[in-house]
Amino acid sequence: MSLPDRAFFVPKSKRAALFAILAGTLIAIAGCTVQPLYSGGSGTSSIGGSVTPGMREKLASIAIEPANTRYGQEVRNKLIFLLSGGAGEPANPAYRMSLGVASSTTAAVRVNVGDATDKTGRPSAGTVRVTSRYLLRDMAGKPVAKGTRVVSSSFDRPRQEFANLRAERDAQDRAAQELAEQLMLAVAQDLSKH
C-alpha cells in the first residue's frame, strides 16, 4: 500500500461506526420539522376531511374589544392592522381578544437646567412604559391564550410645556406600536400551539 492509500484508509470497524453515526444523524434530521410561523403552504391543508386554516387566516379571525384610553386605542388600531393585513376587523370572528393597556411616565434623568443658580433638578429625559395584559378566547368563551407584554420608550423633556407633552405623547405612540407588534407575535405563537 502506498503512502497516499494509507492516508485515506479507515479500518472496517471505524467505517461501520462512522456509517452508524452518519445514518443516525440523517434520521434525526429527517424527523425534525421546522415550519415558519405564518406558513400556510397553499393557505389550507386537509386533515380528516375538514379544512384547517393557515396562520394568516387564524390571525385575521380575531376581534379585539374596544379600548378606553388614547394609547389603548393606538395599540388596538395597530394590532387590528397587523392581524388582518390591513383588512380591518373580521365580520365573523373565531376568537375575541381582551386588552388591558396601562401607561406610566417616569423621569429618567435629572440635571440642573440653566445657570448655576438654578438648582431645580428639572427632569431632562423621561421614559414611557406601556403595559398590556391580553386574554384570547374562542367564541364559546374558552380561554386560548393569555399573557403580559411591556414596552418602554424614552424621550427628551424640553423646557417648553407643549413640546414636553408632545414628546411624551410621541413616546407613547412609539411604545404602543411596538407593543402591538409584540402582542401579534405572542398571539401567533399561542395559536400555533392551539
From TrEMBL:
PROSITE patterns: PROKAR_LIPOPROTEIN (PS51257). It holds the Pfam family LptE. InterPro entries: LPS_assembly_LptE. One of its GO terms (cellular component) is outer membrane. It comes from the Bacteria. GO terms for biological process: Gram-negative-bacterium-type cell outer membrane assembly. This is LPS-assembly lipoprotein.
